[in-house]
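Problem 3 from the worked examples.
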Amino acid sequence: MAEAVTLGKILEEIKKSNENNKKYKDEILSKFEETIKDLTTKSEETQKELESVKVKIQKMEYEKKRKNLIIYNLEEEESNYFQLESCVLSIINDGCQVKCENIEIDFIKWLGRKSNKIRPVLGRPYKLEEKDADHAEQEIAERI
């Protein structure tokens, strides 16, 4: 009979131990689920932020390209940057009748590799405010 009492006690202890283990398991699972929810939320927020940044970069690239000036059929007689710049400025000032000074040009360069074909020239104004750009575009459109 003593064996039955000890076996009963052992069974009760095992049941209590199982219940405690189940409680710990449930606590761990709930903490794990909370952590996963938090990480999922953060991941979604990061994904949205990444998309937003991508859109901003695309807009910036578009704006950067929008302000470019490309001149075609310009002979490559200029041997250095300053000669090319003065040639382009004379085309802008005389041909387009737009007042432009040296300081207003950010950069000018030939596009593509040097070959037998005439390469276009790429240039960008140094600083062009949106209002000024829109106004200049309207003036050019009116002249044409």
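Problem 4, a separate protein:
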Amino acid sequence: MHELSNALKLIWRFTKWVKIESQLSKKLSQFSSLKQSDTDQMITTFKKKIKILQEKFFFLLFQININNITNSFIFLTMSFDLHISKNEVRQTIKRIKVNKASDISDILNRMLQTDLAKLTLILMSLFNACVIHKYHLKQFKKAQTIVLCKLKKSDYTDLKTYRLIALLNIMSKALKSIMIKKLSDIVETYHILFDAQMKVRCKQFMISTLNLLVNQIHIV
């Protein structure tokens, strides 16, 4: 109980620091004028630059109609435990790179790892609550997108000389990593995927793909 009390105090100090930092005014990033690809017009204002960057890198999403799918699949009853343990939280946080950039909350990875002993119980309770209630916190869904220019390019007015990186919530990434491991184990245990499924599967490398291809050729 004493450890939990100290951990709660630590979380409160973190929250207070983040709140104060978020209220401080931040300078807008400065980068060169951009050339609109279709008209070659030079864009100089910040808001218009953001608009053409959005048009370049963020595509419109189309809703897919699945009403024409008539076949149904019946799965056997499966029993599995999605409870997240303290050890899973501890090992996942330890694997995260220490000096990666923080997300919009300004919580650094190093901060979590420094006080991991005190935060493990808090994070475990938070993650299990998300799983039990089937709810992903709104704060976990927020991301900060940063525009980076590619090095050694001659013309930085060209949109192709820029790329984007997304800074995600560090606790959200930890929860995602834990759930991916659990779901991957379930998929492999109950043989839910086809043997030919290679992408995003553990221990499926190029050699496995080539072996499958060679076997298919021999069968034909």
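Solution to problem 4. The two ends are 66 Å apart (CA to CA). The first helix runs from residue 2 to 23.
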